[in-house]
Amino acid sequence: MHLHARADCAADTGFKSSMGHHGEGEGDHGLLNPRGPGKGDLGNIYVAENGVGELQFFKAGAFLDSGDLPLLDSDGTAIVIHAEEDDQISQPIGGAGARIVCGVVTTG
Ligand SMILES: [Cu+2]
């Protein structure tokens, strides 16, 4: 799961309208990358056989409306779930594959 640069989840674009990762270029991709992580990097969600999965993640430096790159900046931020496991080190997205779920970060 990643934070993407724009709060736009148009399904007819395959969620590519959410653009690249939030803060792309500010640190390499991957939580395991010594030159990372990027500001958009989050963890993997592991889903059980019954279809239930859960992710709890604390992203240091991510703020809704403060800091050097707020999530609610002029074009907002999307949360995107990819189809495959992110290896958390290879570029540009850890082999995470297609975008399958997209949601917009909002306060209300
Ligand atoms: Cu992504």
UniProtKB/TrEMBL annotation:
GO molecular function: metal ion binding; superoxide dismutase activity
Substrates-to-products reaction catalysed: 2 superoxide + 2 H(+) = H2O2 + O2
Domain Superoxide dismutase copper/zinc binding: 1-105
Domain of life, per lineage: Bacteria
Cofactor(s) for this UniProt protein: Cu cation; Zn(2+)
Pfam families linked: Sod_Cu
PROSITE patterns cross-referenced by the UniProt entry: SOD_CU_ZN_2
Transmembrane parts of this sequence: none
Top-rank EC class of the record's enzyme: oxidoreductase
Descriptive protein name: Superoxide dismutase [Cu-Zn]
